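User: My notes are a mess, but here's the protein and NAP's SMILES. Can you give me a structure?
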Amino acid sequence: MTGEITMIQLGLGGVGQALTHQVLACQAALEQRYGFALCYRALVDRSGALVAEQSLDRATIQAALDAKQQGATLATLPQAQRGPINLADMLPDHPIIIVDVTAADGMETLLTAAVAAGHRIVLANKRPLTAGLDAFQALTEHGATRYEATVGAGLPVISALQALLDGGDVVRSIEASMSGTLGYLCTALEEGRPLSAAVRIAHENGWTEPDPRDDLSGADVARKALILARTCGLAWEMNDVPGEPWFPPPMAVVSVNEFMQRVGELDADMAGRVTAARAKGMALRYAAVMEPAGASVGLRELPLEHPLATLRGTDNLFSFTTDRYTNQPLVVRGPGAGVDVTAAGVLGDIVATARELSERHRA
Ligand SMILES: NC(=O)c1ccc[n+]([C@@H]2O[C@H](COP(=O)([O-])OP(=O)(O)OC[C@H]3O[C@@H](n4cnc5c(N)ncnc54)[C@H](OP(=O)(O)O)[C@@H]3O)[C@@H](O)[C@H]2O)c1
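Assistant: No problem, the inputs look usable. Here's the predicted complex:
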């Protein structure tokens, strides 16, 4: 007999839509392989939600995807609940999976309450894990939350790190270049393009956050560094991983439009830094180094043969030096951005969680 594994998806943007397409595409294969059907109880965006008593049918899910693809909100669909949703009202007595593919602040409150009620969480949203340490611990206690896609998009970074830790290894340092956006900008600068032109292209193509300063401030990289550090058991807060910004403080307080108009003011300085590095046989990369003693996150001059210096475009690289991987670190490298690979990382976490819940049903 086929059991149903139910999920609620918060967010139906780039990653969320790609994820829903992937879920629909793999349902039959999962049923055949593992004997459970992955079902949506609700799809949620900022405007409202589609909610079913049991599970949303395929036609309703497709209507939601069509609406979002055309730029409409879920609230415009006739069967939608409009306005902010109350997640607690949607949660059944038995454990389900709540998937957060928003970029929203403050989700940790409702997600920790769901964990306390026995539900399971899958995240692409970094923010619930980078709020207070209490929230991180409440979410991740007893493996209640999976979060592979929060770092390195679809690359198996968190799972590699967890495998090292579960095997009793001790992580001495993690060196990484983990922003697809900043990687793209470093490559553009190396090719002689002005920073402002590269930022505008990245912004127009949706490769940056809506406010590109979320990337250029180093905050996005700092959040990922904090997630890696906390996964290693370090009791760090956001101020333990200060990211070096690419712009001076006065540009932090202007509107996004004004920032985009003034971003050209940064061109000469950044071009100069790249030229100075090249004159020394070095490349400029936005790198993070995390050790138990502390972290550094910022622009670094690296020898051309350094693995991080060989990265191009949006590729990421993570290098784990541990007690067992000492002379030759364990390296994970590959595309570190993109909605399809990110959604695939989320789906992998959903399926792993669903398999556990399914085993528990059977027991
Ligand atoms: N794109 C990538 O390559 C990538 C890689 C790794 C991780 N991520 C992470 O994945 C997450 C999603 O990224 P994205 O590119 O898909 O972002 P996005 O296109 O901006 O989509 C965000 C979605 O979340 C919804 N949302 C925002 N606040 C909400 C709330 N309070 N309640 C319910 N829904 C809410 C938005 O609703 P509306 O549609 O109504 O606006 C939208 O559907 C982010 O946390 C991002 O950092 C992305």
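The chain has two domains: 3-153+340-362, 162-336.
User: Great, I'll file this with my notes.
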